[in-house]
Amino acid sequence: MITMDDIIREGHPTLRDVAKEVPIPPTAEDVALGKEMLQFLKNSQDPVKAEELHLRGGVGLAAPQLDSSKRIIAVHVPSVDPEKPENGISTVMYNPKVLSHSVQEACLGEGEGCLSVDREVPGYVVRAARITVSYYDAEGEKHKIRLKNYNAIVVQHEIDHINGIMFYDHIDEKNPLQLKDGVLVIE
Ligand SMILES: CC(C)(C)[C@H](NC(=O)Nc1cc(F)cc(F)c1)C(=O)N(CC(=O)NO)CC1CCCC1
Ligand SMILES: [Zn+2]
User: Which fold has domain 4-185?
Assistant: First the structure.
């Protein structure tokens, strides 16, 4: 079972590597890894388990954060509206790829953090507001989905990790809290 001790922190070189594509259909090992990553996120959002295992509430995790330089990400974003479960996203993506994105940009009003970063880094992380992503699932089936707002931010944050990019790489050092016109602020 994955705990915080398995998550490497900034400074570890693997976080800066470009991860390798995995064979499709995924191997049994890669399927197991993906399942464990998703289970970590679910555990981290369960108050009892998170407390017991000292987990930070996580919505996304990329294999490089487990020192495994593979193009595998897991996302588990609860829908804010229980009547609309489809607004959340809970899946493991093998070899995810952003096929296209909106010109419209967006950022989280509170900025971003990272399970691999044990410090606050203030500043807006400007990303595409909407993306079209292709990926393979554990069975090797190809999917193409459109994401927007928070789900799009989370998936972009995780795809950055498999490209060796950290969220603070996107922050404007001179004006971290400067916002260009037209950037959608997601609260
Ligand atoms: C770094 C951390 C603050 C833990 C962040 N969680 C988060 O932003 N909020 C959150 C937590 C929950 F449990 C349930 C919920 F709906 C919201 C997160 O998981 N990540 C994932 C990460 O570090 N992946 O590598 C950072 C987020 C910043 C923007 C997108 C992902
Ligand atoms: Zn992260």
Answer: Peptide Deformylase (3.90.45)
